[in-house]
Amino acid sequence: xxxxxxxxxxxxxxxCTNCVKKCPTKAIRVHQGKATIKEELCIDCAECIxxxxxxxxxxRTNTFLELxxxxxxxxxxxxxxxxxxxxxxxxEIHRALYKIGFxxxxxxxxxxxxxxxxxxxxxxxxxxxxxxxxxxxVVRMIKILYPELLGxxxxxxxxxxxxxxxxxxxxxxxxxxxxxxALFFITPCPAKNxxxxxxxxxEKSFLDKSIAVDLVYQEILKVLDEEVNSNDDKExxxxxxxxDAIDRxxxxxxxxxxxxxxxxxxxxxxxxxxxxxxxxxxxGIHNVKDLLEELSRNNVKGIKYFELAACxxxxxxxxxxxxxxxxxxxxxxxxxxxxxxxxxxxxxxxxYDLTKDLKAIQIDRLDSNMEKAMxxxxxxxxxxxxxxxxxxxxxxxxxxxxxxxxxxxxxxKRSDCIFVLRQQVEDLADKMSELAHALPPVMRNRK
Amino acid sequence: MNEQEILAKKIEKGDFQAGGxxxxxxxxxxxxxxxxxxxxxxxxxxxxxxxxNIIIHSxxxxxxxxxxxxxxxxxANDNGPGIDNLKKAFQPxxxxxxxxxxxxxxxxGMGLNNVEHxxxxxxxxxNADKGTIIQxxxxx
Lengths: 447, 140
Ligand code: SF4
Ligand code: SF4
Fold this sequence. Notes:
The structure holds 2 protein chains of 2 kinds.
Chain A: E1 6-8, H1 18-22, E2 28-31, E3 34-37, H2 47-51, E4 57-59, E5 72-77, H3 90-100, E6 104-107, H4 108-125, E7 130-131, H5 136-145, H6 159-173, E8 181-187, H7 190-197, E9 209-212, H8 213-232, H9 237-250, H10 266-269, H11 273-277, E10 279-283, H12 285-296, E11 305-309, H13 325-336, H14 370-386, H15 400-408, H16 418-437
Parallel strand pairs in A: 5-6, 5-8, 7-11, 8-9, 10-11
Antiparallel strand pairs in A: 1-4, 2-3
Helix pairs in contact in A: 3-8, 4-6, 5-12, 14-15
Chain B: E1 4-11, H1 21-33, H2 37-57, E2 61-67, E3 71-78, H3 83-90, H4 99-103, H5 112-118, E4 121-127, E5 131-139
Antiparallel strand pairs in B: 1-2, 2-3, 3-5, 4-5
The structure holds iron/sulfur cluster (2 copies).
């Protein structure tokens, strides 16, 4: 089974090792000149996609082609999506998506508003500190690198899953057959795409497909452009206003408040005063990693809740986005002024709770037997001492320490290090010259 | 399995930049040995407190960690000034954290109370001119 969504176009990879060095879980090695990702370590943070100047790292989602396979396709918009547009109203975006062919256009921000309410009560009822589990990259990073913090993850679903489950129920109640419907999600990142086929904390995702933000963005602009053009053409005006009227009826109330979730400090802003003062918002995967390291040694004080997002500035920083994260954040902040209150809804209708435990993924262990692991650990220390400690990555591993680990685990060899190799060649050359001079006595002085 | 030393790290007085290095390294090593994460958490917190204690309150020293299949023993050895520092460190209320914060598992401060809380056994020897040796044991 595929475990993650970040992939490599081998042809484009130059083996430069830039991504190898940037990867926060050290999941990448250059072997035979190509940057291969270790499945079990990839958390889909997309740092390698951002880093690679040759665009060799990429991620694929579904496309609009799949839309035709269903009688009743529904699309879910993440809050961050609205940050991609400047001056285009949320209603216009909904309308464009209806035109593209979706039977329902729904906002994840609706569930985000509900989840803000739930989070408040959860944090009041449960002693201890908690970490938001809405960014799947953060959850996976904790599972792999900080399993000791797993118990601190909020045992609540991400807004998109809460929303999707609730829509699925609605569709069933409407009498629609499961196979005729599909829930599409406009995904800002490879990680959300991964949760569809590799979910965490739930048995199965309630989403069916995802389409990357950039693809949807283009399509929406196309629809809106066509409208402008056809409006120039007088004859078509009646026609288009007619169909617009139908679409307008279907547009659900816009959950402006919930749009906050699309950017960093969004969750924080929807908690009440006392809680928001004890909430810390951190974004960017390396910042998040540093913070988790501090948390694991108990060195962050006075904080009850951590809103952590893998991407810079939150989901507006997701790698599939089109707008610059700061611009997108600004666009969202502007929209927040449009709605003074949350939309009216019954918060108790949602299923918030995770239904499965979040388990550690153990990858570091040198051996399942502690005594053997200890032997390997001692060997590892020796290997580290043998390497030059330059962390140049020419061996294809991110640093000398990691090459040493690969050697101990049988996945690398000392001569992968160019300095060790050079030394070996030099030693060999010395030996050869020594041998060349070591002629048998009878041969000496004979020319 | 016989006890093995897996970590020995010099700690300079006042070297805040290096604060946390010993505990992070130890955490990494224990994960490689396959020690359970809940225990690693305890050991990491204990080690961090001990190394910060050396950085802040002593003239410098060393952190060592020894592992057997039964326990992890963290030894903090400093070069003084000894007992005074210790009395202060164990004073009730010396730690700045409130009960609520402590319950959150956070902020128990630089107090050795915290080390005591997270370790299964704690041994302290202090000598006015020779410095202090603190041994914290977490059973596996
Ligand atoms: S950044 Fe990684 S994927 Fe891109 S060329 Fe360099 S090694 Fe290859
Ligand atoms: S912060 Fe980034 S990786 Fe995390 S859910 Fe948002 S867009 Fe995806």
